[in-house]
Specification:
Length: 186
């Protein structure tokens, strides 16, 4: 009889432990999704702004078609990523950011474009969106860190597979963007 009581107490304690761990996995997953939704809103604003930016620059640099095509293709690929596929979305966003860099490199070759009020307004809006994205990325990376740490440490690691634990990728700056910034006063 004592053995049965001890076994029942053990089973109840194990059940409470599993419920507690499961609830933490759910909480962390929801925090990551919430953080990603903040990034997603800013990305949608950026997607809407990109065609206007491309059209404005096209008027000045019509022979730079490959640069414009690369930006539009990267935008379309980023838009085509299925909702909820955060890790793939991060990779698509990195490609889009690289191709947008090509647009701003063109601006340096066209002084009239730098003075165009429409372009300056679009550039200011894009800068504002990028600042919002930076704040959202920091929050997202913090929630990813918490999620990944719990799933890889004790006690979470004991039952991570049983609860379909998902490790998320950090939204990091690419290596190319870490180099020295070129400043030119002309």
């Amino acid at each position: 009889m004592t053995t049965i009581i001890i076994l029942l107490i053990f089973i109840v304690l194990l059940a409470f432990f599993l419920v507690h761990v499961y609830n933490k996995f759910v909480r962390f997953r929801n925090l990551v999704k919430d953080a990603w939704s903040n990034i997603d809103v800013a990305l949608k604003r950026r997607y809407d702004l990109i065609p206007n930016l491309v059209e404005t620059v096209k008027g000045y640099a019509s022979h730079e078609k490959s640069t414009f095509d690369a930006v539009i293709q990267a935008r379309n690929e980023a838009l085509a990523v299925p909702a909820g596929d955060i890790n793939t979305q991060i990779k698509a966003e990195q490609q889009l950011k690289r191709s947008l860099g090509g647009i701003f490199a063109l601006v340096e070759a066209y002084p009239d474009l730098k003075a165009n009020t429409n372009f300056l307004d679009l550039q200011e809006k894009l800068n504002h969106i990028e600042e919002n994205l930076e704040r959202a990325r920091r929050y997202y990376n913090g929630t990813v860190r918490e999620n990944n740490t719990y799933g890889e440490s004790f006690p979470g690691v004991l039952v991570a597979g049983m609860f379909n634990y998902q490790k998320y990728d950090y939204y990091e700056v690419e290596e190319e963007a870490r180099g020295n910034v070129k400043v030119s006063f002309q």
